[in-house]
């Protein structure tokens, strides 16, 4: 595989997947449809995946329901854990190949993907360790009544994932869902379904009972919407756009669907004048351009204290010139393309919006049209200065490599600008003053706040959003909760029940 794709641009062989993974078997889609997956670095199809329609979703949900009612729910937690560990080991061994496939499917840079994907094996190990930890409580009442809770898996979970970091967003959904004892129907993004099908292959090899994990690539408006509406699906866990989440809420009304959402951000990355400027700059530039700006956690609003503002603008401009944009599979590449053409257009349109709003385009903002990159969806690392927080480029999620540099004066204004956003997923701040770090971090409305670092995540640390950035937490022990129901049992120690109608 590696040799075959080393020259990504010259590789014109199509990778073909013909079968959905349902009920432990590889099956043809009932209507025989397929989806071409475009390599965003070349603009050409590189893989073909099967396309599930509504009947396939019905089949997958039925298989997941049977598996839930059958072996999976009854399996002791430590046995589920053993299966998840076997899966984690297989996943670890497959890391080099998965990284290449993901690079081709979504344009992520091979160096970053290798690190991120090998870490995911640890995430799966952590989730495995939770499989026998769903413990209830005893509730003190009085001598006549004994009360306790038991936690039950909620049933079939529909996991709907985006295209920006497909394997990671899948990992933090299916890991806790399976650990909790739920069964899963995974509908990956229509743009990036290849690695989801590879996960099915690994799950099969790991020996999960048939129907515990099902993979059904398809389009959102069709397969995705049907999964949301399905009466036998207990919860949808979704990462993607807020507008899509709202459609899902409508789609889930009839069945009173439960949802877990991870819906993007517009994170403030705050640099105080007393910060270690070099470190802050390393983080702020990386977190503006990493994954070509296509991550909800990134710090796209860079808030800089006034005394160092001009210096930081210059440093950003100089750093942008050093970013090696190129083919994702090239080991030297540090920034790849946008994951699809629509996203490229969206980013370029925001560059025009920013200019129209009066922000100063310091560098970048154009599609890259050098001969080797011209067919792909490459865009320059981009910096806007003179941004105020009311501009659309500061308020809306662009999902491109666009940093908006916003000046501020002092702590109060930093906090006020940081929180003046509908989003609340992540935030970062740089200061050498410990008191300030604590004061500011605890007033920021975000589910994850980084101090003198950025984008540090761990399987054991809960992750998720305040406000419009989402519902529920992924990772950490908290990740189990959405997939469990609490049953309270009350036992009378006397067995006496009075006759209310005796007199
Ligand atoms: P999206 O939200 O439309 O799609 C994400 C997933 O939802 C895909 O699997 C898609 O098939 C599915 N989907 C779409 N419509 C659906 C529906 N009605 N019912 C059920 N499932 C449905 O996101 P997108 O079109 O891939 O990207 C649009 C924008 O979303 C991007 O430009 C970016 O700003 C944002 N985005 C955010 C994240 C994030 O991590 N927060 C990830 C990807 C995209």
Annotate the secondary structure layout.
Layout: H1 2-5, E1 15-16, E2 20-22, E3 25-27, E4 34-39, E5 44-50, H2 54-74, H3 77-93, H4 95-106, H5 110-130, E6 138-142, E7 145-153, E8 156-160, H6 166-180, E9 183-187, H7 194-206, E10 213-215, H8 220-229, E11 235-239, H9 242-251, E12 258-262, E13 268-271, H10 277-289, E14 301-305, H11 306-320, H12 341-357, E15 360-363, E16 382-385, H13 392-395, E17 402-408, H14 410-419, E18 426-430, H15 434-441, E19 448-451, E20 470-471, E21 484-492
Parallel strand pairs: 1-5, 8-9, 8-11, 9-10, 11-12, 13-14, 13-18, 14-17, 16-17, 18-19
Antiparallel strand pairs: 2-3, 4-5, 6-7, 7-21, 12-20, 15-16
Which architecture of the largest domain would the CATH scheme give at its second level? 3-Layer(aba) Sandwich
Q: Quickly count the domains.
A: 2
| N-end to C-end Cα span | 84 Å
Shape: globular
> Hey, roughly how much beta strand do the residues contain?
15-25%
Q: How much is the radius of gyration in Å? A: 24 Å
The total of helices stands at 15
Uncertain runs are 1-5
- The quaternary structure here is single chain
CATH class of the largest domain: Alpha Beta
- Quote the CATH topology of the largest domain: Aldehyde Dehydrogenase, Chain A, domain 1
Question: Roughly how much helix do the residues carry, as a percent range?
Answer: 25-40%
CATH superfamily of the largest domain: Aldehyde Dehydrogenase, Chain A, domain 1
Structural class: alpha/beta
Main beta-sheet strand count, sense and barrel state? 7 strands, mixed
Mean model confidence by pLDDT: 96
* Strand line-up across the major sheet: 15-16-17-14-13-18-19
């Amino acid at each position: 595989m590696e040799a075959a794709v080393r020259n990504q641009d010259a590789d014109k062989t199509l990778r073909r997947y013909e079968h959905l993974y349902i009920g432990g078997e590889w099956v043809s889609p009932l209507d025989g449809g397929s989806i071409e997956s475009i390599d965003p670095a070349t603009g050409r199809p590189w893989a073909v995946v099967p396309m599930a329609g509504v009947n396939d979703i019905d089949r997958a949900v039925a298989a997941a329901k049977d598996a839930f009612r059958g072996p999976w729910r009854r399996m002791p937690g430590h046995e589920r854990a053993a299966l998840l560990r076997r899966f984690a080991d297989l996943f670890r061994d497959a890391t080099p190949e998965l990284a290449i496939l993901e690079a081709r499917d979504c344009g992520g840079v091979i160096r970053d993907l290798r690190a991120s994907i090998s870490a995911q094996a640890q995430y799966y190990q952590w989730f495995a360790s939770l499989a026998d930890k769903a413990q209830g409580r005893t509730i003190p009442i009085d001598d006549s009544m004994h009360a306790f809770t038991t936690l039950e898996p909620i049933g079939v979970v529909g996991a709907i994932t985006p295209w920006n970091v497909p394997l990671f967003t899948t990992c933090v959904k299916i890991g806790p869902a399976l650990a909790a004892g739920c069964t899963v129907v995974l509908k990956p993004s229509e743009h990036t379904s290849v690695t989801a099908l590879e996960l099915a292959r690994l799950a099969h090899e790991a020996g999960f009972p048939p129907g515990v994990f099902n993979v059904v690539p398809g389009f959102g408006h069709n397969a995705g919407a049907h999964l949301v509406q399905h009466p036998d699906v207990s919860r949808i866990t979704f990462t993607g756009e807020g507008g899509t989440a709202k459609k899902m809420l409508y789609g889930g009304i009839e069945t009173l669907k439960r949802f877990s959402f991870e819906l993007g951000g517009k994170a403030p990355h705050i640099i105080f004048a007393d910060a270690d400027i070099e470190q802050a700059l390393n983080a702020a530039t990386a977190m503006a351009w990493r994954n070509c700006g296509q991550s909800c956690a990134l710090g796209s609003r860079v808030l800089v204290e006034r005394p160092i503002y001009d210096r930081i603008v210059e440093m950003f401009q100089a750093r942008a010139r050093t970013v090696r944009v190129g083919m994702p599979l090239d080991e030297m590449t540090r920034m790849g393309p946008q994951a699809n053409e629509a996203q490229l257009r969206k980013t370029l349109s925001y560059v025009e919006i920013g200019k129209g709003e009066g922000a100063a385009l310091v560098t970048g903002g154009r599609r890259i049209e050098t001969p080797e990159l011209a067919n792909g969806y490459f865009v320059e690392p981009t910096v806007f200065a003179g941004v105020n927080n009311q501009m659309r480029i500061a308020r809306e999620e662009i999902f491109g490599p666009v940093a908006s540099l916003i000046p501020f004066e002092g702590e109060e204004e930093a906090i006020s600008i940081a929180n003046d956003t509908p989003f609340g997923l992540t935030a970062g701040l740089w200061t050498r003053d410990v008191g300030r770090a604590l004061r500011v971090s605890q007033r920021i409305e975000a589910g994850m706040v980084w101090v003198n670092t950025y984008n540090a995540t761990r399987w054991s640390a809960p992750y998720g959003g305040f406000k419009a950035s989402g519902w529920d937490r992924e990772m950490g022990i908290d990740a189990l909760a959405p997939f469990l129901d609490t049953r309270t049992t009350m036992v009378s120690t006397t067995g006496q029940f009075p006759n209310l109608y005796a007199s």
